[in-house]
Amino acid sequence: MMPAPSQFLDAEDRALCQRVADQVTADAKWYSTSIDKHVLASTILSLFQHGVVNEANLLAHVRARRHDFTKQTG
Question: How far is 69 from 61, CA to CA, in rounded Å?
Fold first, then answer.
């Protein structure tokens, strides 16, 4: 029987997810949108846990779901 995968991210994985979150947050400022940070974090973690572990791919997937966690501010 194989052990269950860890539910926790190591430091390198957390840093990767943080870079993606930081880039999406910077995008939002550019487009004058606000972000629901909890939904953004959940989106990033869900995608990562489902195998999107390449930073560029993760960023692309998160950006494609931008409407889930952003709203116009102006």
Answer: 13
Q: Give the chain's length.
A: 74
Alpha-carbon gap, residue 30 to 73, rounded angstroms: 11
Which residue carries 């931008």 as its tokens? 66
* Domain count within the chain: 1
Query: Which range of residues forms the domain containing residue 43?
Result: 11-72
pLDDT tens per residue, range 5-37? 556 789 999 999 999 999 999 988 887 788 899
Between CA 24 and CA 18 the distance in angstroms is 10
pTM of the model: 0.82
Structure tokens at 10: 């190591």
